[in-house]
Amino acid sequence: MKKWWLIGLLLVIALGVANFTLGPAKQGTTESATNLPWQIDITPGGNTRVFGIEVGATTLQQASQQLGQEIKVNPEIALFRAPDGSYLLESYLGKIKLGPFQARVILRLDASKQLLEEFAANSLSSQATPSGNHQLRLNGDDFERARKLIINELSYSPAVNTEAELLENLFGEPEQRLEVDANSTYWTYPQRGLAILVNADDKEVFHYVPPRNFEQVLTRIDTLRAAHEDIPEG
């Protein structure tokens, strides 16, 4: 199965990457492939544009409208409360097609601490998750307010595994390779606002943020690595 995936990906590369590298297609030529995970632009405002979404400027509502043909229902929005009392607001788009690939997409939303606490106080229900967090369900009014918030991180996981060698050909040599465990390593590209979780036995996860926020991603990676080091072997 992976062999056919690689053949298909190489065909996409043959059709699209050369055009992406050399510039837009000339008038009258075949349109090149778009919405590919390595097609990343840094905007004049310092945001990261990928899949047509400007991470750091596009709202969830705008992204939903843009991807409306792929999102069959309203995206799920959930507020997570960690054991330390911190909050995280995310929208899960489900499994959608971006360019030629099926992928799972999660969008983190930018909200003040005060707004997150307000959402929590108004929430309709709370459910414990395996990670130790609690997932809170927003009420209808807060759901609509959340849709107007700006996306500050986009996480993308294609439906199939990708060889590390092919990733390096597409994205280049990372600035750092930060090992989490024996099977997973983060490849970091700070200038492009990208961190890739490369899994030996599972799907890759691509995290896109504005480059100015990349230190937050590195802090999160360090926390994951430290947590793994605290787990006794055997």
Q: Could you describe the 3D structure shown?
A:
- This protein is an alpha+beta fold and 234 residues long.
- It folds into 3 domains: 1-33; 34-48 and 165-227, no CATH class; 59-149, no CATH class.
- 30% of the residues lie in helices and 31% in strands.
- It is built from 6 helices and 13 strands.
- It has helices at 2-22, 60-66, 113-122, 140-147, 164-171, 214-229, and strands spanning 41-42, 48-50, 53-55, 76-81, 87-98, 101-109, 125-128, 134-137, 151-158, 176-181, 184-189, 194-199, 205-208.
- Strands 7-8-4-5-6-9-13-12-11-10 form a 10-stranded antiparallel beta sheet, sandwiched between helices. A 3-stranded antiparallel beta sheet has the order 1-2-3, with no helix packed on it.
- The longest helix has 21 residues, at 2-22.
- It is globular and about 50 Å long.
- The model is unreliable at 1-31 (pLDDT under 50).
